[in-house]
Amino acid sequence: MNACPVWRRSSYSTGANNCVESARSGPDALVVRDSKEARRPPLSFSGSAWSCFLSALREREPVRCPVG
């Protein structure tokens, strides 16, 4: 993971600090964290797994993404 990731918040986030933040952690990887628990280790995803997840959300379909 990058030493100092640049965390991004959703434009839908409110100022109440209750959102999910994401950051690039490599050429084809990213990390996700809960802004309320920023000191906890983030979850890591490959770029393709994250794209699959977002696509499933947009289509309002069950997430059926390959693992690995």
Summarize, please:
This protein has one domain. It has 1 helix and 4 strands, in the order E-E-E-E-H. This is DUF397 domain-containing protein.
Describe the structure.
The protein contains one helix and four strands; from the N terminus they run E-E-E-E-H. With 68 residues, it is of the alpha+beta class. The chain has one domain. A hairpin with a 2-residue loop joins strand 2 and strand 3. It starts with 7 loop residues before the first strand and ends in a 9-residue tail after the last helix.
The string of secondary-structure elements, in order, is EEEEH
Radius of gyration: 13 Å
From the spread of the alpha carbons, the general shape counts as globular
How many H/I helices?
1
Poorly predicted runs: none
The total beta strand count reads 4
Sketch the major β-sheet.
4 strands, antiparallel
- The proportion of strand residues reads 25-35%
Given the helix and strand composition, which structural class is it? alpha+beta
How many domains make up the 3D coordinates? Answer: 1
Pfam families: DUF397
Protein name: DUF397 domain-containing protein
Domain DUF397: 6-58
Task: List its salient traits.
single chain; 68 residues; alpha+beta; four-stranded antiparallel beta sheet; 28% strand; globular
What topology does this entry show?
Blueprint: E1 8-9, E2 20-26, E3 29-34, E4 43-46, H1 47-59
Antiparallel strand pairs: 1-2, 2-3, 3-4
Organism: Streptomyces corynorhini
InterPro entries: DUF397
Pfam families: DUF397
